[in-house]
Write a structure and sequence with these properties.
Helix content of chain B: 40-55%
Number of strands of chain B: 14
Distance between the termini of chain B: 84 Å
Order of helices and strands of chain A: HHHHEEHHHHHHH
Number of domains of chain A: 1
Distance between the termini of chain A: 38 Å
Helix content of chain A: over 70%
Strand content of chain A: under 5%
Strand order of the largest sheet of chain B: 7-6-8-9-10-13-14
Number of domains of chain B: 2
Oligomer: heterodimer
Order of helices and strands of chain B: HEHEHEHEEHEHEHEHEHEHHHEEEE
CATH superfamily of the largest domain in chain B: Response regulator
Largest interface: A-B, 39 and 36 residues
Number of helices of chain B: 12
Shape of chain B: globular
Strand content of chain B: 15-25%
Number of strands of chain A: 2
Shape of chain A: globular
């Protein structure tokens, strides 16, 4: 086995950083709903892809891909609110939320396929033509935008939950809803806001996906495993944790691909997950 | 007989002949039912639609021209949703519940393998068009129309390297990168062996899992190796994703080959310039010199556009599909029966002329003929460049 060159190592690290940021962005909403609302929202992935397809569609009508968020975010927020309202209306348990949202995933995937067909879609935008060079290393604008979005949203969410009254109320409600309610915290309203925000985050992840990747409805399921691993390793309800875990997984995968075979990359995320769960089972 | 009498007899005879002719043209009686599945939904649906349109064209033309054995043909088509397990169940239903007379294969290797097992269980002939692993086709009465030849792992890479050997820039180094999907993987492994025998230095060999979404690290390793030639065991959009990842790190491959790409995808992107791929048929002479092929191409353009197929060019998928219908109907006409055992035996002993070539099935696995060719994107079109007798007029391999 030849040792990779410095350029290959550097490029792999960058590549891992960017894909890891996308894992973190994907996992942010899922981590929040799972950790704070005790709902395992599998439909989060389908929503992200729906956001990607909407970004693609609106861009093909002439809108700037980033400006499409002005449409996608409020729609997804509303959808997230509605989804949580329905789940709590029927008192869906955490396990059942997995089943219900899986069904929703299939519905959304079928809708995507019905509207956009199973054919591959690729958003061609001026963003994709821009890349930056640092020595022998390259970074494309879509990748940088994804990294910035992930950092802003994860750090912003962490800061909001730590320093704002809304964030503190959310954490209190997540820890003990009846006691929080006794202190005047409207946990139901907070849950709706959180669910809507998580869905909006899925829309952002979808926008980043559309900028950098080819879209195919069946790819929804390809992300579930690795993002779940990032969420569980990073800690439920921990925005910075999921970002760091996503980046660790992404970088480790990329380095594995640089040193050995790309076919080994999927082993990485799940091996890490197993190690973390064995070492610190209380994380769940 | 008087003149009037003769005229009367003549008119009556004319009427009788006319009525008889019309009766032969319009098939009658219970339909011949041909059952199959296709990926009408799911990840294979885009290509499944191509096969659906081809089948509709063929059955429609068949019924316009007297049907099969004088009977109308009914195509019983089910959606296997791109799932091999569902394909198996549906083929069982087609045989045991729908009681179809004949079977036609589904799309793509895993689904065909499932259907083959059912056909074997019920001793039915299975003609199919897109099975990529000949060594797994062990059933005696399966008949492939995308004929890769008896030893494609060696013969097809050899064909590709032959094309370069006759060019101005035969490659000295090669990077072989491949998906681990079986139909692609064995070809890539074959390419390694052939490259080694020809003294082409392998500077990189990589495999990736099917469904890989991030080609960044693979692109980085290719750039690091900087080969003269990239042989990619790539299917569908893999090639596009790899080229996009290479573009991100400012690397343009000198020569690049993709085994089974989505043809229109590499045509539409400027990154696909000079890309090479495999084929058995393209829309140019000598293929279009066949009047049956020319007529089919015309019909496919019209019906494909109506069906919403983005690129209605007839290439390997559509042509192999049409050939499959030609083979099945040849077997029925040759035996003048719907007896699957007789049809199978007849096909085993008689070649069939199809739009992709003359197909023989009297060899192990029935992959007797090597129909494979090499095509290249030139001036926004796919053109065959090798072997030279099938090359588009004036087309030669562009090698760098």
């Amino acid at each position: 086995m030849n040792f990779p060159s410095a350029t290959l190592l550097g490029q792999s690290l960058l590549s891992g950083l960017f894909i890891g940021a996308l894992y973190g962005l994907f996992g942010l909403g899922l981590s929040l709903t799972w950790g704070m609302l005790r709902q395992i929202n599998l439909a989060h992935f389908a929503l992200a892809f729906l956001g990607a397809y909407l970004t693609y569609q609106l861009s093909s009508l002439g809108f700037d891909p980033l400006l499409t968020l002005a449409v996608v975010l409020p729609c997804f927020f509303a959808f997230g609110v509605l989804m949580h309202w329905l789940l709590s209306r029927f008192s869906i348990t955490p396990f059942n939320s997995l089943l219900v949202t899986f069904g929703l995933t299939v519905i959304i995937e079928s809708a995507i396929q019905w509207i956009w067909t199973a054919d591959y879609r690729r958003l061609e935008s001026h963003y994709g033509d821009v890349k930056f060079r640092l020595g022998t290393l390259y970074a494309s604008l879509p990748e940088l935008l994804t990294l910035v979005a992930a950092l802003l949203l994860c750090l912003g969410t962490w800061a909001a939950m730590r320093y704002t009254d809304l964030g503190k109320a959310l954490r209190a409600a997540a820890e003990d809803a009846p006691v929080a309610a006794a202190f005047g915290i409207n946990d139901r309203a907070l849950a709706l806001i959180l669910s809507g925000t998580s869905a909006a985050f899925a829309g952002v992840a979808g926008g980043c996906l559309a900028l950098g990747y080819t879209l195919d409805p069946s790819q929804i399921y390809a992300w579930i495993g690795v993002v779940f691993a990032a969420v569980m390793i990073g800690g439920l309800g921990k925005p910075i944790g999921v970002l760091v875990a996503g980046i660790v997984i992404g970088v480790t995968e990329a380095l594995t691909m640089a040193f050995t075979s790309p076919a080994w990359a999927p082993l990485v995320s799940f091996s890490l997950l197993i190690v973390v769960l064995l070492a610190r089972p209380q994380k769940l | 007989m008087s003149l009037q009498g003769r005229a009367l007899v003549f008119s009556a005879a004319l009427l009788a002949v006319s009525a008889a002719t019309q009766a032969a043209a319009a098939p009658s009686g219970p339909p011949v039912r041909i059952g199959s599945t296709l990926a009408l939904t799911g990840p294979f649906a885009a290509t499944g639609l191509v096969h659906k349109v081809v089948g509709e064209i063929f059955v429609n033309d068949l019924n316009k021209n007297g049907g099969l054995l004088g009977r109308p043909v009914e195509w019983v088509l089910r959606d296997d949703q791109s799932k091999p397990d569902l394909a198996r169940t549906l083929y069982e239903q087609l045989v045991t519940v729908d009681k179809v007379d004949l079977l036609m294969g589904p799309y793509a290797t895993p689904n065909i393998l499932s259907a083959m097992a059912v056909a074997q269980r019920y001793n039915m002939v299975l003609v199919h068009h897109t099975f990529g692993v000949p060594s797994l086709a062990k059933y005696e009465y399966q008949f492939p129309t995308w004929s890769l030849g008896p030893n494609p792992g060696e013969t097809f890479p050899s064909l590709v390297f032959d094309a370069f050997a006759h060019s101005a820039h035969p490659p000295k180094t090669i990077a072989i990168v491949t998906s681990k999907l079986p139909p692609l993987h064995f070809m890539a492994v074959g390419a390694r062996e052939v490259a080694k025998k020809r003294g082409i230095k392998e500077v990189l060999y990589l495999e990736w899992e099917a469904g890989t979404k991030d080609f960044g690290p693979i692109a980085s390793r290719i750039k690091d190796a900087d080969p003269d030639f990239i042989f990619a065991g790539a299917i569908a959009f893999d090639g596009n994703m790899l080229l996009e990842a290479l573009k991100k790190i400012d690397y343009t491959p000198r020569n690049h080959f993709y085994l089974y790409p989505t043809p229109s995808a590499l045509l539409k992107t400027p990154l696909g310039k000079d890309a090479l791929a495999s084929t058995v048929f393209e829309e140019h002479p000598p293929f279009t010199s066949n009047p049956v092929a020319a007529k089919f191409i015309e019909e496919f353009h019209v019906r494909g556009a109506k069906a919403g197929i983005p690129d209605t060019g007839v290439d390997v998928q559509a042509s192999a599909s049409y050939s499959a219908w030609q083979v099945l109907t040849a077997g029925v006409r040759g035996t003048k029966s719907l007896d699957n055992q007789k049809i199978g035996a007849w096909l085993k002993s008689h070649p069939v002329e199809t739009i992709t070539g003359n197909l023989h099935f009297n060899c192990p696995h029935s992959y007797c003929d090597d129909l494979m060719k090499v095509k290249q994107v030139q001036n926004g079109h796919w053109v065959v460049i090798w072997p030279p007798q099938y090359a588009a007029p004036g087309a030669k391999l562009i090698a760098h």
